[in-house]
Amino acid sequence: ETGEAVLIFDDTKIMPTADPAKAWTGVNNPANFLPLPRDVIRHYVRRDAATFRRPGWLVVANTDARFAMDLFDAAYDVAESRPRGTYTAYRLVPRNAR
Fold first, then answer.
1. 25-45 burial by CB neighbour count: b if 16+ within 10 A, else e?
2. DSSP state of 15
3. For the chain, what percentages of helix, strand and coil (3-state, to nearest 5) are there?
4. CA distance linking residue 13 with residue 52, whole number of Å
5. Which long-range contacts (CB under 8 A, 24 or more apart) does 61-68 make?
């Protein structure tokens, strides 16, 4: 609906095809980042929010929501959430984009 890029955060570590011009975070696949310490991931999230300055969708398995949101709340506000079964989609807006 919004045309913004989507990041899927769950155990399958699927990376949907996206237009690079619509990127809102460099944390584009949990498989690349989950082995890193949380503070390092948060650093990337904050840096990307400052660089891209775009909103995007984070689709999270409800079992991983607390962990995922802990990583992104360092730089983003939740503008909207849409629960759908075992997943919730969060539209995240960078704090520095206002």
1. bebbebeebeeeeeeebbebb
2. -
3. 35, 30, 35
4. 22
5. 61/9, 61/10, 61/11, 61/86, 61/87, 62/86, 62/87, 62/88, 64/9, 64/10, 64/11, 68/9
Q: Which two tokens stand for residue 63?
A: 């079992």
pLDDT tens series, the chain, 98 aa? 778 888 887 777 777 766 777 788 888 777 778 889 999 999 999 999 999 999 999 999 998 889 889 999 989 999 999 999 999 999 999 987 54
Residue type, 98: R
